[in-house]
Amino acid sequence: MMGDTFGSSMASLFFLWATIQQIFPNHFKIAIKEFLISTIQQLSFFQRFSDRFINFFSPYVEIAFSEFEDYRYNQAFAAIETYLGAKATDKAKHLRASQVRESKGLVLKRDETRVRDEYEGVSVWWENATDSIGFKTLKLTFHRRSRDIVTDSYIKYVVEEGKSIEDKNKKMKLFTNNPSSHWGSSKTSFWRYIDFEHPANFKTLAMDPKKKEEILNDLVAFSNGKDYYKKIGKAWKRGYLLYGPPGTGKSTMIAAMANLLNYSIYDLELTAIRNNSELKKLLTATSNKSIIVIEDIDCSLDLTGKRKKKESNSTNLSKDGQQGNEEEDKSFVTLSGLLNFIDGIWSACGQERIIVFTTNHLAKLDPALIRRGRMDMHIELSYCTFEAFKILAKNYLDLDSHPLFKQIESLIKETKIAPADVAENLMKKNREIDVEGSLKDLIQALERRKKVQRDQVDVHKDKKKDKIFKAFRMLF
Ligand SMILES: Nc1ncnc2c1ncn2[C@@H]1O[C@H](COP(=O)(O)OP(=O)(O)OP(=O)(O)O)[C@@H](O)[C@H]1O
Ligand SMILES: [Mg+2]
């Protein structure tokens, strides 16, 4: 209303000024111009004043909860969203149903932008809005006479209720840090998540059963260790270093860890971070009960302090057409920055966190990075053993034993083959389980590999002999 009056008054004034321009001489025009300017100033003052006046006398108060705050995913926002989502089942008329994880059934979400809630006789309204770049905000409106009850206890109640619902049917999340050019002109890295639905578990993980049990016990002891860590005065965190050749189950084990403990995963891409302070912001923005993963640590961080660019990463970027110029992509995340976080801030804030590094080349890592205390447990994932093969045979063929197992056992002992390659051969073809055919395929693959590996050894031996022979010739 007020805005309309202001707009029409302005239009009339401009019309008046245009008419005056045509009719009156110059000095008179100037006097009128000054008069009009002062009238406009008074009008805009009046507009401002009237807004304040309305706000002052409006009986409603509004509180906004943003999805992100300074790179940080707002955990209160998530809890409130969950709380409002749960209200859907009994109150909202328009629902959206989705299935997140089979075991947890359908998830209902309200499809309405405005939800009314009641708490100890007080009515409040929630409204959700999305800004132009896709970030969400939840607005809470209530009568100002309820201010105390809303700010003192209602918001706390909503957040706690939301968190307990989250815990009950917790959907695990997979967070990734992506560079974005939305904020300001430079690229900034921030967390984005999707629901984590990896089926990996320790039962289907093919590795030495003893080692597996040891890792399982370690993880369970860690997750139940709140009082123990408090008692010994140590931050509640644990580091695991997973190393081994490609396809031996490092990433699969991380997924199995998350499923075992019901923790979310933060997949930290160091090559997308500009500097140590950005790294710090990202890491302190991670939530409790989470696993922070840095895959291929030897490729992401140059141990002299500068960064190496991962080949795969640069191809991905160029595929998306987002590859910036080289100068912009330079990163100053350093080994000491990472170590500072693990030892310093890490210990000061956040609880119940696991950090996992993976590498294909243990020898390339700086000892400082992997010393005990930082990485508490070093886990080697190696080529497939017969024990591991038996687990894969059970997973893929539902098989406990078979006459061909003997032949496979002796071939596996003599051949270096990753579990991923064994699994590839055991996967059912044409949707039919052909046990015999799959085992024979594997035997053939093992025999081919054995031959190649033997030839490589021979070539290596020949080269060595050649070198010795040349050295002799030089001598005589
Ligand atoms: N130990 C294992 N137990 C069960 N499945 C496995 C195992 N190792 C590999 N696989 C299978 O092979 C696929 C590839 O394994 P994964 O990605 O975990 O290997 P990785 O060690 O992380 O390899 P990279 O070093 O290349 O990242 C998985 O999807 C899984 O199906
Ligand atoms: Mg991997």
From TrEMBL:
Matching Pfam families: AAA, AAA_assoc, AAA_lid_At3g28540
SMART domains (alphabetical): AAA
Co-factor(s): Mg(2+)
Listed GO biological process terms: response to stress
GO molecular-function term, one example from the UniProt record: ATP binding
UniProt keyword terms in alphabetical order: ATP-binding, Hydrolase, Magnesium, Nucleotide-binding
Transmembrane parts of this sequence: none
PROSITE patterns (alphabetical): AAA
Catalytic activity: ATP + H2O = ADP + phosphate + H(+)
InterPro entries tied to this protein: AAA+_ATPase, AAA_N_dom, At3g28540-like_C, ATPase_AAA_core, ATPase_AAA_CS, Mitochondrial_chaperone_BCS1, P-loop_NTPase
Domain of life where this protein originates: Eukaryota
Protein name (database record): AAA+ ATPase domain-containing protein
Annotated organism of origin: Capsella rubella
